[in-house]
Amino acid sequence: MLTRPPASSLRFTGAASFALGLLVAVGVLAAVFPWYPVGNHVAEGDRSPWTLTAPRALSFDSAVRTEQVRAEAAAAVPDVFVLDPGVRDRELTLLDGQLSAIRGIRDEPGLAASARESAIRAVRDVELSPRAAATLAAASAAEWDSMVTEAQAALGRALSGTLQEKDLPGMRQQVAGFLSPLLSQDQRNALTELLSKHVVSTLVVDAARTNALRAEARQGTPPVHVSRARGDVIVSEGQQVTAADIELLEQAGLQVDGVRVRDTLAVALLAAIAGAAVGGYLLVNQPASLASARRVTLLVLLLVLPAFGIKVALAVLLPDQDRHFFAYALPVAAAPMAAAVLLDVGLGVLLSVLLAIIAAFISVMLPLTHGVPAGEVETARLALAVSASSLAGVYVAARAERLHRYLAAGLASGAAAGIALLMVWLVEVERGSLDLLWIVAMVAVSGVLAALIAVGVFVLFSRTFGIITRVELMELTQLSHPLLRRLQDEAPGTFQHSILVGNLAERAAERIGADPLLVRIGSYYHDIGKLVAPPFFIENSGEESPHQPLDPLQSTRVILQHVTAGIEIARREGLPDAVVQFIPQHHGTRLVTYFYRRAASLDADIDPEMFRYPGPKPQSRETALVMLADSAEATVRASADRSAERIRSIVEAVIRERLEEGQFDESPISLRDLRVVADVYSSILNSVYHPRVQYPEPTARELASRRGVPLGDTTDSEGPRWPRLPRPRPQLPAAPSPREPVDAAEDTP
Q: What is the enclosing helix (H) or strand (E) of 61?
């Protein structure tokens, strides 16, 4: 974790954990919902782009194949025909109409022979040769009447019995024999042509009996049972897909049109698992990193967005029948890496596990909705690769303090994924040496993309969600930072004090498991308010104190002003809240003891609240460490006795005093932590203020060998020194309002 939450951090009760878990579940359900804008299922008549095999043993009665067989059985039943008496009457009526039309043409005066013949051939439904039309047109009235009578009699005779379709050619030839031999051959031929179209079947299909027989045939045909063993080919690549193939794919679960209820239920259960995992983690661990609604939103986004990306990408990239391993170029590890840096490592690990589960589930779900199965090996490969890459990225990026560490995290992520893929590759039946090249290329792409995306998330969204990254903190440790440079130039004593406080607190933070980097930064900037009036603080003052002409209350106001001024300067310079909180909290609600006691010696009834820092008290172990380091260093520096025993007693007295004052009531620091702090501070302060060796006077040879102006030994000699320059007398700053927030660590006598 990079930063501690502010005092208003969330407390995850059962209700709050349940609500957030429900929010996560809804987000995962929306992201992994089994609907895809573009499907890759095959349709009847298409040529399959893949070779599809049965993912499991299949045994079922095929509705499509059964219907095909039963249709063939029904089609094999011939039509049932019955005699239709109306056929003879209908055809005789049609013949009478044609003869009447021809009679009208014959009786029409003034028509030329050729015109009359053409008109006869144009009579509706009449197909006559030119010679037959000429014969009918040239016949006398008596011959015409005889021909009409013969035609009607011959057709009636031809249609008087049962006449099937197969008998029609013979009957059309036989109808000429029904005509009178008294007619000329041309007349007989003309009538035969005229009657030929009217010789039709006198039978019609008995639909009821035919359908009944065909229904019996369908019912008598048993259903077709289809079975396939696991691994059997259902459709080969390039094969034209039939309706029976589609049915087999559906039975195998390889193709579904639309959204199925059971698929939605499966996704809902997955979403419930994700929500329960997040809610349970919050309830049990109470992560301080989720200090606001914005950070909670960030957690949800870091889970939901990658889950949606995995679903869309795997729908396109799987199945990997060409073994190019494109699915493993996905930078899934970027989300857990971002969570580890922006929130905490525990949440990064949680996201790693959940995203691995989601990826494995999607690879299993895709065959149910999207065509070709990924297979058990692909599912295992996805779960192992995603979890390994994400966990490796989390652990390397968790304490990243330089940008290159994020690249290292990405490379570690890719390497872990490559190891996982290699592990599965070694036990696969179908594998080739070329696979290794594809694996190396894809995991390298994944690692680089994960690092770039993670850095982008840090840069773009860290401040948006109220988070400061370790890289940003490291920038604040540079002694060339403008504020630290001003401390060096304008308040050198305060600067040295801050550096030493940082060394003390950082080492203690490492020992008790607090954030050492944040502690060091907070120590560097906790006293920047002293830039307003540096000489009024003892570490920056000369031999004559500027507080001498002031009464204790005025001096207290000057001391307190450095807190409000420090907060104002920090805000103006853009320091993050995690650093600003050290300015008021490292003094808590203590008294400005030195000046309060001076005032009390003059007026025993004076109100101590006028000399008290308003706090707040330390809210984290980090600010508590800086409070103790600040007081311990100042007290030891002011003490004339700096023996190891005295330093130890001073440190323990400072800790005991803060405990008795209740300064740690709102901080999670423990008594065990304080014992470690006492050991660390005593050890470091002993090394800083250890006794010095007294150097003897320089020898005559040393003095004789010197050239120029003798400067003397600046540590202990009595030789000449540079003259002390006069120090300008500081001006008294305006007293702050009693209502402004204040601080205390520089009032040590």
A: strand 58-62
Q: CB–CB of 254/371 below 8 Å?
A: yes
What are phi and psi for residue 686, nearest 5 degrees? Answer: -65, -40
Q: Which residue has the tokens 């029609």?
A: 168
Cα separation, 327 vs 383, whole angstroms:
12
Under DSSP, is residue 329 helix (H, G, I), strand (E, B) or coil? Answer: helix
Q: What SS3 state is found at 174? A: helix
Tens digits of residue pLDDT in 222-248: 999 999 898 788 888 788 988 888 888
Q: What CA–CA distance (Å, rounded) separates 709 from 641? A: 37
Single-letter residue type at 519: V
**Helix axis angle, 63-75 relative to 243-251, nearest 10°?**
150
Task: Compute the distance between CA of residue 562 and CA of residue 527 in angstroms, rounded to an integer.
Answer: 7
Q: What does the radius of gyration of the chain's CA atoms come to, in whole angstroms?
A: 51
pLDDT in tens, 597-618: 888 888 888 888 888 888 899 9
Neighbours of 677 (CB within 10 A): 27
Contact 192, 179 (CB under 8 A): yes
How many angstroms separate the CA atoms of 125 and 327, rounded?
Answer: 72
632-643 burial: b if 16+ Cβ within 10 Å, else e = bbbbbbebeebe
- Whole-number pLDDT of residue 522: 93
**Tokens of residue 49, six digits:** 């782009």
> How many C-beta neighbours within 10 Å does residue 480 have?
7
Tokens 């003094």 sit at which residue? 587
C-alpha 558/C-alpha 578 separation (Å) is 26
Structure tokens at 70: 């039963």
Residues 338 and 331: beta-carbon distance below 8 Å? no
Residues of the chain where predicted confidence (pLDDT) is lower than 50: 1-10, 708-749
Please, where are the H alpha helices in 197-327?
207-219, 243-251, 261-285, 293-317
| Calpha distance 350→281 (Å, rounded) | 8
- 259-297 pLDDT, tens digit per residue, is 778 889 999 999 999 999 999 999 998 887 887 788 889
